[in-house]
Amino acid sequence: MDRAEDKADASVWAVTCVFTRAGFRRRGVSAAMVRAAVDHARERGARALEGYPMVTTDVIAEELHVGTRATFALAGFTEVARPTMRRVVMRIDL
Fold it and tell me: Which residue range(s) make up the domain with 36?
Protein backbone atom coordinates (compact mmCIF):
# COMPACT_ATOMS: atom_id res chain seq x y z
CA MET A 1 0.00 0.00 0.00
CA ASP A 2 1.48 3.33 -1.04
CA ARG A 3 0.47 6.67 0.38
CA ALA A 4 0.83 10.29 -0.52
CA GLU A 5 2.64 12.12 2.20
CA ASP A 6 4.62 15.30 2.66
CA LYS A 7 7.89 14.08 4.15
CA ALA A 8 8.81 17.66 5.00
CA ASP A 9 5.72 18.10 7.22
CA ALA A 10 7.24 18.87 10.62
CA SER A 11 3.89 18.38 12.37
CA VAL A 12 4.02 14.61 11.80
CA TRP A 13 6.28 13.08 14.42
CA ALA A 14 7.70 9.54 14.54
CA VAL A 15 8.42 6.92 17.18
CA THR A 16 11.43 5.14 15.71
CA CYS A 17 12.58 3.08 18.68
CA VAL A 18 10.77 1.38 21.55
CA PHE A 19 13.40 -0.54 23.45
CA THR A 20 12.93 -2.17 26.82
CA ARG A 21 15.92 -3.46 28.72
CA ALA A 22 16.19 -7.21 29.21
CA GLY A 23 14.69 -8.23 32.52
CA PHE A 24 11.89 -5.67 32.19
CA ARG A 25 10.26 -6.97 29.00
CA ARG A 26 6.73 -8.39 28.86
CA ARG A 27 5.61 -6.06 31.66
CA GLY A 28 3.91 -3.38 29.56
CA VAL A 29 6.88 -1.02 29.49
CA SER A 30 6.86 -0.61 25.70
CA ALA A 31 3.13 0.06 25.70
CA ALA A 32 3.59 2.70 28.40
CA MET A 33 6.38 4.34 26.39
CA VAL A 34 4.23 4.54 23.25
CA ARG A 35 1.30 6.00 25.22
CA ALA A 36 3.70 8.55 26.75
CA ALA A 37 5.00 9.42 23.27
CA VAL A 38 1.42 10.12 22.15
CA ASP A 39 0.84 12.40 25.15
CA HIS A 40 4.18 14.17 24.60
CA ALA A 41 3.52 14.75 20.90
CA ARG A 42 -0.03 15.97 21.53
CA GLU A 43 1.09 18.39 24.28
CA ARG A 44 3.72 19.87 21.95
CA GLY A 45 1.45 20.44 18.99
CA ALA A 46 2.15 17.49 16.71
CA ARG A 47 -0.63 16.85 14.21
CA ALA A 48 0.06 13.12 14.03
CA LEU A 49 2.45 10.47 15.33
CA GLU A 50 3.70 7.48 13.37
CA GLY A 51 5.43 4.24 14.28
CA TYR A 52 7.06 1.66 12.05
CA PRO A 53 6.81 -1.68 13.88
CA MET A 54 7.57 -5.20 12.72
CA VAL A 55 4.56 -7.35 11.82
CA THR A 56 6.24 -10.73 11.78
CA THR A 57 7.16 -12.92 14.72
CA ASP A 58 10.09 -14.38 12.77
CA VAL A 59 12.62 -11.82 14.00
CA ILE A 60 15.63 -11.65 16.24
CA ALA A 61 15.26 -9.65 19.45
CA GLU A 62 17.37 -6.78 18.10
CA GLU A 63 14.83 -6.17 15.32
CA LEU A 64 12.02 -5.55 17.79
CA HIS A 65 13.50 -2.24 18.99
CA VAL A 66 10.99 -0.62 16.61
CA GLY A 67 8.10 -2.11 18.59
CA THR A 68 5.32 -4.46 17.63
CA ARG A 69 2.08 -3.79 15.80
CA ALA A 70 0.08 -4.76 18.90
CA THR A 71 1.92 -2.23 21.08
CA PHE A 72 1.00 0.63 18.75
CA ALA A 73 -2.56 -0.62 18.26
CA LEU A 74 -3.09 -0.60 22.04
CA ALA A 75 -2.16 3.10 22.05
CA GLY A 76 -4.74 3.91 19.36
CA PHE A 77 -2.58 3.78 16.24
CA THR A 78 -4.03 2.35 13.02
CA GLU A 79 -2.27 0.85 10.04
CA VAL A 80 -1.87 3.30 7.14
CA ALA A 81 0.70 1.51 4.95
CA ARG A 82 2.62 -1.72 4.61
CA PRO A 83 5.87 -0.82 2.82
CA THR A 84 7.35 -4.31 3.21
CA MET A 85 6.12 -7.75 4.21
CA ARG A 86 7.80 -7.35 7.61
CA ARG A 87 7.07 -3.71 8.37
CA VAL A 88 3.91 -1.63 8.81
CA VAL A 89 3.35 2.12 9.14
CA MET A 90 0.98 2.92 11.99
CA ARG A 91 -0.38 6.37 12.72
CA ILE A 92 -2.47 8.22 15.23
CA ASP A 93 -3.91 11.60 14.30
CA LEU A 94 -3.83 14.05 17.18
Answer: 12-76
